Amino acid sequence: MKSLRKVLISASFAISALLAASANASFIGAELQARYLFPDAGSQFSNTETFTVVDPGVEVSFFPDGDPRTNLDFSATNLFVTYNSSSSWTTAAFNGFIVEDINNVLDDIVGVSLNAATNMAGLDLSRISFTADSFSVNWNGLAFNTSTVVSLDFQFGSQEVPEPAILWLFGLGLLGLVFSTKTARI
Predict the structure, then answer these.
(1) String of DSSP letters for the chain
(2) Which of 102, 170, 176, 185 has a Cα-to-Cα distance from 93 of 20 to 30 A?
(3) Is the dihedral of CA 126, 130, 131, 132 positive or negative?
(4) CB-CB neighbours of 138 under 10 Å
(5) What is the distance in angstroms between the CA of the first residue and the CA of the last residue of the chain?
(6) pTM, entire model
(7) How would you classify the pairing of strands 87-88 and 134-138?
């Protein structure tokens, strides 16, 4: 019985560690595709940029399509956008970009927030949208200069990973089984 208890306890720790590890997603190593959309979300304005996220390093310079204004730099859970000049984005239904996980290797995007480093006046969460495998930023009509920064933090999850409460219940169930086996023996 002691060996059964050890096996069950070891199994519960191994399963918890495995599930927790799969929930820690990262952009690093993912192949992404960036497209610039203008004058609406259905109109592609420039060539598609396909890149693999490495850190450190700027993944896309002079975005979109050789435009020297914007750089996209991804890290594990962040996108850091910098600008090389001063200007403003033309007002339109949509003037921005979409980034997609083209090989579907990332855990689902479950949240996007503005990092405190963001200083683009007028940019708020209403201009950012996301699905499980893509996100977009619509900065139509906003201005920028060489001091402007846009920093987005991403939260990842997976439909396949149980909620933490379920993991706790699973663990408690295993412990209950271990102790009931021990009590039945006494």
Answers:
(1) -HHHHHHHHHHHHHHHHHHHHHT---STT-EEEEEEE-SSTT-B-SPPEEEE--SSS-SEEEETTT-TTEEEEE-SSEEEEEESS-EEPPPSS--EEEEEETT--SPEEEEEEE-TT---TT--GGGEEEETTEEEEE-TT-EE-TT-EEEEEEEEE-TTSPPHHHHHHHHHHHHHHHHHHHHHH-
(2) 102
(3) negative
(4) 22
(5) 12
(6) 0.73
(7) unpaired
